[in-house]
Protein 1
Amino acid sequence: MRSEKEEDRQEAPLTRIQVNGKEAVVPGPISVRGLLEHLDLQPELVVVERNREILSRDRYDRVDVEEGDRFELVHFVGGG
Amino acid sequence: MAAAEEQSDVGAPLRIADREFSSRLIVGTGKYPDNETMVEAIRASGAEMVTVAVRRVDLDRSKEEGVLHHLHPDEFFLLANTAGCYTADEAIRYARLARAAGFNEWIKLEVIGDEHTLLPDVHATLEAARVLVEEDFKVLAYTNDDLVTALRLEDVGCASVMPLASPIGSGLGLVNPYYIREIKRRLEVPVIVDAGVGTASDACATMEQGVDGVLMNTAIAAAKDPVQMAGAMRLAVRAGRAAYLAGRMPVREFAVPSSPERGMLD
């Protein structure tokens, strides 16, 4: 999951996490809002579950992404 | 017929929990050939409440984006579902995620018990309903056409009970009108028939049983012309409701002439 851009700046600390079942590496330290921005997601259209706990939107700035965190990022799709 | 007398107007709103809906038709947003057709069909259906599913965001962006890029929550009341869940715990998790999206606390509870028929696991549904009602969700519970389960779902505090007409996506229509009528007769909460409708006559026949509304997805989305079918469903649901309120003639297994028998020529 590591992009070329991230390889360029190897000095930067990296945080290894899992997002939607896949391994991911993000430049750390980073808040949950930072993670959503990093993934180019609109916070108002996504619900975040971190280590099986739902994070309310008002906590996105205050909660930091930590090594080994498991995130589920969900949204509404078409369904019956 | 007390209920019919109270609300003898075909235009009377559908009331569920603390809300009123102008349409008795609730539609899904899945399986449309494209998003433009989905939006056009939903508008043609006249539905105010639409169902949506909760799924992982596709981080590769290889698939279509979320449904809210196409449907505006100001225009439609969003009813999130727990479709695809096979246990009570899973359904509860999906319901909580749906509520955290921030639109409302309503959930279409669906716990599937069998992969082949997609028939509901009524025990798990009851278990999840109990927990979600406790957490102040407005629970609209998808269930079998079984009276006892419907009564139990009402007992635990569901805002609506939603028995199937026939299996999800089957288009088999209303297979057990007697059980649906009996559920409607015995429950106080609104009864919405969810799943199985295939075409307009099914929707009409379902509404003729006296139920409060119909929920469908595939019947519209999988029609050759979904927009046209959505319009047909809108008319069918209204026609069925009007026919129910009008009170049908008794069925007789013999003919009764409509024209006078007297006054015939020699």
Protein 2
Amino acid sequence: MEDFYRELIIERYKTPHYQGVLDPNDISYEDDNPACGDHIQIDIRLDENGVVTEALFSGEGCAISQASADLLVESIIGKNTEEIKALGKEDVLDNLGIELGPVRLKCALLPLKVLKAGIYGLGDQKAED
Amino acid sequence: MDPTASAGFNVQQIREDFPLLSREVRPGVPLAYLDSAATSQKPTVVIDAMDRYYREMNANIHRGIHKLAEEATLAYENARERIADFIHAPSPEELIFTRNTTESINLVANSWGRAFLKAGDMILLSEMEHHSNLVPWQILATHLSLRLEFIPVTPQGLLDQDAFQDFLEQEPKLLALTHMSNVLGTINPLEDMLAKAKSAGAVTLVDGAQSVPHFPVDISTLQADFYAFSAHKMVGPTGIGILYGRRELLEEMPPFLGGGEMIKKVELRSFKSNDLPHKFEAGTPAIAEAIGFGAAVDYLSRISMAEVEKQERILTGYALERLSGIPNLHVLGPGIEEKGGVVSFYLDGIHAHDVAQILDSEGIAVRAGHHCAQPLHTKFNLPATSRASLYFYNTPEEIDRLVEGIYKAKSIFD
């Protein structure tokens, strides 16, 4: 259990490094986890090459969801949208450094879900343009 | 000293009736099961009754002429009679076997609601309803253009009786209320409220999922037209519940599901409904589960519901006392006078899921989330709460473990 709530997770939950909103932004997406009420929004600014220059998250929820969002947002700065599309569950779990059961996995993966929906939403928009 | 000790009730002996209660959650970590409002554990007598049905008399009921079918039918109908006695229903024909409380309420919405409600009619609910007594009416309201109104919940977690009076003057066609809130623990003053609703001309439905398992419920003195509850929260199996309905209403209502057993006579283009209660029991029912439900009410009757209520009251009082001593912990709902054995709480700075996870590591099973009462959490501006729910088989030591677990969560997060 002490491993589960390792220091990194508690620290990022209590004092997140990448919390806030970006306005204006290039990508903004939010979603909920209806089972527990976790809520995550991620705002992203891109340069002309589609590389993330700034990213912040906002929302509320358990320590796992909030720490996961903070670490995920940190990890995408400097990445391009194709690299972000390639991110998966394992990357999130590597960030957190813990194993999770099926229920808590949803908490950990909500930020990734939000991020991907945002990135792919942007792709659709461009396709429509 | 054991504060629950009382003559004739020995909790350690009771716990031996429930095989699961003695298991370890993980090696060396005993279980403290504080989630009985979600589902209760089952005593051996219930498990055995169902096992015996499958081993000794499994047959489909009501149709067969053979010996097994006769025994199975008797056992099934006998369970219905014992459950009717348990809630003091006037007759077993007024008890419909359903899957659970949710299906019971959906039966009323779909059968009675569609037949007797029309556009503009008002259904009166409350802000503390479980989704199961909310969503069926939302679906029906959309379909028939009905008006839904809600008795507000006061900051103390009680129903606002003045607002209720005002709503009654607007002549609701139906009052559908929970007997006991699964989040706040509030036991609503139904005797008074249902009587008032009846005088105002409303039909009344009670969600009894949290009441029948925990204190004596007497249908004959409550003016409930419909009363719904589930076996699995009262030491019985999952997959079986009851809808009690007043005979005159059930007689007038059209069938809910069509199929075998609910008919008296079928032609290619028409059918004649069967008598009560079979009219509402289409298809092969959950026979083993009904028999298990019968064994469950026998078990509870042997302890006596008055004793169950008494034990839970002592435990709830102890839990409230212990929890109120924890800094930055807030308990939802009213005080012990109006509260059943449901203690929902939140801690400043620690999300309910994190609390539940840390408690789980100590073997303590609580619920975290909105407990299928999202509007109530929205009202109190809480994304989620943790809920410890008690039953007569719980002990003060388990509450002590809960308190220690909460302090552990605080030490991790502080």
